[in-house]
Amino acid sequence: MTVAARADSPLMEIDLDRLAGNWQTVRDRYTGAALGAVVKCNAYGLGLEPVVATLSHRGCRQYWTLGYDEACRVRALAPAAEVFVLTGLRGASARDCRTQRLIPVLNDLDEIAQARRAGALTVAIALDTGLGRLGLRPEAVARLAKQGLAPLRVRAWITQPASFSAPEGADGQNLHDRFLDLIAPLPRAARSLAISASVFTCPEHHLDMARVGSALYGVDTSPSLDLPLLPVASLRAPVLQVADLPAGAGIGYDRQFRCPGPMRVATLGIGYAHGLPYALMSRGAVYFGPYRAPVVGGVSMGLIGVDVTGLPVDLAIPGQWAEIFGEHQRLETLAALAGLPANAMLIATATGCGRRYHAARPDQPFASRLSESLP
Ligand SMILES: *Cc1c(COP(=O)(O)O)cnc(C)c1O
């Protein structure tokens, strides 16, 4: 079923062939044993079902999720895959995990003790090597080495780099060696250190398992490198009205912007309710084809104004669309102007806007099943 594009709400288009292409690019670069996909937070907002279907079809057999409910959804979508739950046993009992065949990532000694009391279970264990979030601190790792783990089976030791753009760590920190030293006294299991940027920038970090999110979704977490990733999501917003305003006219609440001269301004149907950052007040631009139209005035709940003075008249009229990000402007560029990491803007807009999926390749399992999902 194809739903006609509405002309009063923004629309995110998600290209599943490009998702598959990025999977292949990462696959080609990764030298370790198992490449896993991070699909936390509804696959970075893009939709768990189409993303898991596409990646499973391409051979992905490991998924990393945040939260028990999400893990159960992935379990149902990918019956043969290993499904890791980064929040461990906080939202599920060991028995729940056993029933659903989920692998909880245990993050502290209490959780490990709780899991051991519940009997045999396959788990992963996270170490905190400097991010200061989830995971066992080095003192706890030393205690763990003494106390043992039976009857748990450890599938993997994992740690999250403290920088997603430069995962090797600042000079002298050598995350790789510190991680291997920490786990040396512990039982042997797969070692997982690599995230998106590590796949491209630190071959040494590849080890046994990678947990890759951003790169699959076409988000470049180390933009200085110009990685061969394809943008997966693009976003557009409809023109609702065009007005010719005189010099001195205000645009937006409390006259957030004042026209320095006569201006033609298009009102677009997108705002912070759709995840567009408020920080784009009179900052950044959208595109009509190759033409740049700067944001003028504030970002309202469901509207923004853009300056279309001098643009070909038939490009910026009701019924036409403005590109927020996509072909002419990268998500990363606009996010940086708003002071946000690209993932933050991707998730907010993907969650706030209707999404439409494209898959041209006939072998894509998703092509004919779902074409649109509302926010
Ligand atoms: C989000 C996350 C990742 C993925 O990071 P990317 O830079 O998006 O590839 C990997 N591991 C853990 C534990 C995460 O929370």
Short description:
The protein is of the alpha/beta class. It has helices spanning 16-29, 40-44, 48-57, 68-77, 94-100, 109-117, 138-147, 175-183, 196-201, 331-337, 342-352; strands spanning 11-15, 34-38, 62-65, 82-85, 102-106, 121-127, 152-159, 190-194, 209-212, 233-245, 250-251, 257-258, 263-268, 285-288, 291-296, 304-307, 321-325, 354-358, 372-373. Strands 1, 10, 13, 14, 15, 16, 17, 18 and 19 form a 9-stranded mixed beta sheet that branches.
Structural account:
This protein is an alpha/beta fold and 375 residues long. The protein has two domains: 31-212, Alanine racemase (TIM Barrel, Alpha-Beta Barrel), CATH 3.20.20.10; 233-358, Lyase, Ornithine Decarboxylase, Chain A, domain 1 (Beta Barrel). It is built from eleven helices and 19 strands. The strands form three sheets. Strands 1, 10, 13, 14, 15, 16, 17, 18 and 19 form a nine-stranded mixed sheet that branches. β8, α9 (196-201) and β9 (209-212) form a beta-alpha-beta unit. α1 (16-29) packs across α3 (48-57). The longest helix is centred in the first third of the chain and has 14 residues, at 16-29. The model is unreliable at 1-6 (pLDDT under 50). Bound molecules: pyridoxal-5'-phosphate. Residues 38, 40, 86, 160, 164, 195-196, 211-214, 221 line the site of pyridoxal-5'-phosphate. Pyridoxal-5'-phosphate binds next to β9.
